[in-house]
Amino acid sequence: MATGLNLLTFVSFVCVCMAVGEGEDLMTELAGEVLSNKQALLSIPWEIYRDTPSFRDVGYVGEFPISDSAATEIHLSSLQTGREIQGFPPNVLIGRALVKDSLKVTQPPANFRYTGKGGEEIKHLNGLTNPAGDLTVWQWQRMRWSAAKEWLEYWADRGAAGAGGARLAIIHSSGDVLYGGGCDENTIVYRYNRIVNASGGSQKIVMAAELSPWPADLGWSYNLTSSSWAEGRRADVLSDFSVPDNWESTYANCTEPSVGPCNSSPKYMYANSGFMMGTIDALIDMIADLGTTYSGWDNRWFNEYYLKNPATVTLDYAGILSMSLHNMNLGSLPLEVNGTNTGKTIQSKLTNGSICFVHGNGNSFAALQGIAGELKA
């Protein structure tokens, strides 16, 4: 299997320059998706009442047929690289789960992580609630990751350009992520490899980080299992990008306990499943059970997988591939929009370079919409 450095060399030979306007359409597409996201509860995806009166409880609904209007697939984004313009697949696949026909987003509202209200539910005349909102959210989660696994397996089986399972892919959440511009395909691969190399060199997956664990009890898991290696890795990655070890003290705002805890000295150190980049084979291994047997929240799965597999997964502690905004100081974010018209980019105040993706999860969605508005202005 190719190492990160070999992948960088491979991509450098195949795509030697940034196509004109590379990524501009994706920036506009994702900004529009964020601006049009009404943060509505996820709809009930099952065909429950096709033959049953709506007032009658039907027992467990999890195995009912999925409505055609809720069919989910991974939508392949395009940076319009030179390879794509020539009719070839990109070297880095970028996808997100959307409803197949309507292209609606499949994520619950951003504040689901602290309000617990993310999906529609039905209250019956007998007083029962079935399905409950949590079950609705879980079913959409199951459909997202089933679609992701199918998508990744398709590309692994296709083996385009001889890459097979070693081809790189990005999966990010829908409706709450922006593409920041200034990151052509080569830059994305270079940053991925640089994070991997600073983390020790064996990792195949880079996930976004964030300030607060979700679910909150994961903070205890980190204290128990990661102190022997995670602190050193975080320091190494930040040092490699010349980012101060305590950069969070300037930008974190963890004063509202109800939206999620931070450390007493906030650290951007918890895994965030809103963005992940890695080799196809490693991503398939990581998500294998999420669309079938796993019954918890997906972000818990990814955090626990990271803690159990530090040689396979690392985090983007400097936020240069993806910056997560939850519990940041929304009045003074560690990023800003630079440029005019089609030359706009989202710039990091930590590195003075571009940020490839920005995730407005948790309490930061309104701020993300403000950034989207600046990108489209």
Automatic annotation (TrEMBL):
Top-level taxon: Eukaryota
Signal listed as a keyword: yes
Position of the signal peptide: 1-23
Keyword annotations: Signal
Protein name (record): Phospholipase B-like
